TrEMBL record:
<dbReference type="GO" id="GO:0005886">
    <property type="term" value="C:plasma membrane"/>
</dbReference>
<keyword id="KW-0169">Cobalamin biosynthesis</keyword>
<dbReference type="GO" id="GO:0048472">
    <property type="term" value="F:threonine-phosphate decarboxylase activity"/>
</dbReference>
<comment type="function">
    <text>Converts cobyric acid to cobinamide by the addition of aminopropanol on the F carboxylic group.</text>
</comment>
<keyword id="KW-1133">Transmembrane helix</keyword>
<keyword id="KW-0812">Transmembrane</keyword>
<comment type="pathway">
    <text>Cofactor biosynthesis; adenosylcobalamin biosynthesis.</text>
</comment>
<feature type="transmembrane region" description="Helical">
    <location>
        <begin position="77"/>
        <end position="97"/>
    </location>
</feature>
<keyword id="KW-0472">Membrane</keyword>
<dbReference type="Pfam" id="PF03186">
    <property type="entry name" value="CobD_Cbib"/>
</dbReference>
<protein>
    <recommendedName>
        <fullName>Probable cobalamin biosynthesis protein CobD</fullName>
    </recommendedName>
</protein>
<keyword id="KW-1003">Cell membrane</keyword>
<comment type="similarity">
    <text>Belongs to the CobD/CbiB family.</text>
</comment>
<dbReference type="GO" id="GO:0015420">
    <property type="term" value="F:ABC-type vitamin B12 transporter activity"/>
</dbReference>
<feature type="transmembrane region" description="Helical">
    <location>
        <begin position="279"/>
        <end position="298"/>
    </location>
</feature>
<keyword id="KW-0175">Coiled coil</keyword>
<dbReference type="GO" id="GO:0009236">
    <property type="term" value="P:cobalamin biosynthetic process"/>
</dbReference>
């Protein structure tokens, strides 16, 4: 078994067994605290934002490359462990799917609890959301996070794996850092986050569309991609609409962020069973992403 394939297998095993490290021990949480130091008023916000977008992800990637490069010469097994841990913390799927399932279940029995839980998934005011809108938020977030949390960093790892294990792990960390920067700073009211948002738009262009293809395949509905083209540009993001619109087409439901966008507007909001199917489709799409990455690094 190649070292890169062993690294991928370790990351998958940790994802299945663990899901997510606790926040106090999560490098992404540490990186988030570093970003908080930048998230304030500046005399020259765009210059600071550009420097942050260029430097912070590079530092995160450089740290991973350095650790793996130091570990691998000591023992190939240590290199695999270091790279596998880096890939594991750079990707995320199981925890997000678990939260989505919780929101869907709670939408049936306790709206207040569902409104509280959905805050971990979607950046929207949940106080007035109906049961159907809560299920929509959970379903949309599952699709969007497939691209952000798994396909993008996993693709970077696979594409860089022919060069070296350290570069592959560093590439995954860089993509995760770019996405984390955007999630914390990439808002219109934060001019110091403009560069981070634009960088994330570029990085996510292909993974978002690849995720849409995976969702269509997982839902056994390739034609959903054609229908998704009608609504994929409705969200403000140039990328997130693709996996979300494709899932809306696969399920035959309306997915909606009130006051912002509507996907598949002629249909109704998802029922509990439809939303649960949506989570299963995303889970299968994630498994396909791991499988295809494994085939790529093996070849």
């Amino acid at each position: 078994m190649s070292l890169t394939l062993a690294t991928l297998a370790l990351a998958v095993g940790l994802e299945l067994a663990w899901g997510e490290p606790p926040a106090r021990a999560h490098p992404v949480a540490w990186f988030g605290r570093a970003i908080e130091r930048v998230d304030r008023e500046w005399a020259h916000p765009r210059a600071v934002g550009l420097a942050s977008a260029l430097v912070l992800p590079a530092l995160a990637a450089g740290a991973v490359v350095g650790v793996v490069s130091l570990a691998a010469p000591l023992d190939p097994f240590l290199g695999v462990v270091a790279a596998g841990l880096a890939l594991f913390v750079s990707t995320s799927l199981r925890m997000l799917l678990d939260v989505a399932r919780d929101v869907i279940a709670e939408s049936e029995r306790d709206l207040a609890e569902a409104r509280e839980s959905v805050r971990a998934l979607a950046g929207r005011s949940a106080a007035e959301l109906s049961a159907g809108e809560l299920r929509s938020a959970a379903t949309e977030s599952a699709a969007e996070n497939l691209a952000d949390g798994l396909v993008a960093p996993l693709s970077a790892f696979a594409l860089l794996s022919p060069f070296s294990l350290s570069l592959a792990a560093g590439g995954a960390a860089w993509v995760k850092a770019v996405n984390t920067l955007d999630s914390m700073l990439g808002y219109p009211e934060k001019s110091h986050g403009t560069a981070s948002a634009r960088l994330d738009d570029c990085v996510m262009w292909l993974p978002a569309r690849a995720s849409a293809v995976l969702i269509a395949l997982a839902g056994a509905n390739p034609g959903a991609l054609l229908r998704a083209r009608e609504w994929a540009r409705a969200p403000p993001s140039p990328n997130s609409g693709w996996p979300m619109a494709t899932l809306a087409a696969v399920l035959g439901v309306r997915l909606e962020k009130p006051g912002v966008y509507v996907l598949n507007p002629a249909r109704e909001l998802p029922t509990v069973s439809e939303a649960r199917r949506g989570v299963r489709v995303v889970a299968l799409a994630g498994a396909l992403a791991y499988l295809l990455s494994g085939v790529f690094v093996w070849s």
